[in-house]
Specification:
Elements lengths: L1 E5 L4 H4 L4 H8 E2 L7 E7 L5 E6 L5 E2 L15 E7 L4 E5 L2 E5 L4 E4 L6 E5 L8 E7 L7 E3 L5 E5 L8 E7 L10 E7 L5 E2 L4 E2 L3 E8 L7 E7 L2 E7 L3 E5 L6 E4 L4 E8 L8 E2 L7
Bound molecules: 4-deoxy-L-threo-hex-5-ulosuronic acid and zinc ion (ZN).
Length: 278
């Protein structure tokens, strides 16, 4: 397992970042490495983002100095979404089969977490999000069919999409983590415009279903000082609480968003009027 620590950044500094520095601080360029668990620990809400890609055998979730407890989930909870081939996660002996697009919420206090692929020629890819937790809830699998589906947008604004709320208070109880998957319809490229901030929570985006050489231009920054990060397939972007988060692709795509912070109220957003953006 590899874990990289990143510190939080102040918006007054970020406005002076060049492209390389912006990417170094906010883009997670490599989420999946075969036969490894690769994580980024961000001091923004102590959010951990990364991936587990088991190929030749199971991978066990280990703790690390950055986590600071004997087991990874002693004081954390975890959301895993399978964006690869069929796989399986075992949590303290309980086996959860995860078809592509299935999500598993793993509660604080779980001691032994193992990731496995069913077919090494079509490995599972578990996209991982973790936040600190203070209580134990129920580990549960949430398939797309069990998620709360919200249809949004319209073709005239190139943003027709379905937001599947998977780890959400209406579906699954958690300490902090809220997570879902947004699927854009073909010929629709914009997500989250008009955009918003939510100073009460950070958010992490993971873009996929983006065949080469397609890219998503992910927008971030203060509303009056926007920047963009060019994102390729299976890369993640960390969005601080002061930042807008929105994107436009060179084609349609899917993304997973996850949040942690002071509340779990999905609708607690501060909408930015389009005319205020700079
Ligand atoms: O705070 C909520 C998040 O930004 C996402 O859920 C937005 C999103 O998926 C979309 O508009 O497509
Ligand atoms: Zn948001």
């Amino acid at each position: 397992m590899k874990i990289t620590v990143r510190h939080a950044s102040h918006q007054d500094d970020v406005r002076n970042y060049d492209t390389t520095k912006l990417r170094d601080h906010f883009l997670v360029p490599s989420v999946f490495e075969a036969d490894d668990i690769v994580l980024t620990y961000s001091h923004i809400d102590r959010f951990v983002v990364g991936g587990a890609m088991p190929v030749s055998g199971p991978l066990k979730l280990e703790s690390a100095k950055a986590i600071g407890s004997a087991n990874f989930l002693d004081r954390r909870e975890l959301g895993a979404v399978n964006v690869g081939g069929p796989g399986r996660i075992t949590v303290d002996g309980a086996v959860f089969e995860l078809a592509p697009r299935d999500c598993l919420y793993i509660t604080m206090g779980s001691l032994d977490v193992r990731f496995e692929s069913l077919d090494p020629t079509n490995p599972a890819k578990f996209y991982l999000n973790s936040a600190p937790a203070h209580a134990r809830f129920e580990t549960m699998k949430i398939s797309i069919a069990q998620a709360k589906a919200v249809h949004m947008g319209d073709p005239a604004q190139s943003n027709e999409r379905t937001i599947y709320q998977m780890i959400h208070p209406d579906v699954c109880r958690t300490a902090q983590l809220v997570l879902g998957m947004t699927v854009l319809k073909p010929n629709n490229m914009w997500n989250t415009m008009p955009c918003h901030t939510h100073d009460r929570r950070c958010e992490v985006y993971f873009y996929f279903d983006l065949p080469e050489p397609a890219r998503v231009f992910h927008f971030m920054g203060e509303p009056s000082e926007t920047r963009h990060v060019v994102v390729a397939n299976e890369q993640a972007v960390i969005s601080p609480s002061w930042s807008i988060h929105s994107g436009v692709g060179t084609r349609n795509y899917t993304f997973i968003w996850a949040m942690a912070g002071d509340n779990q109220d999905f609708t607690d957003m501060d909408f930015i009027p389009m005319e205020d953006l700079r």
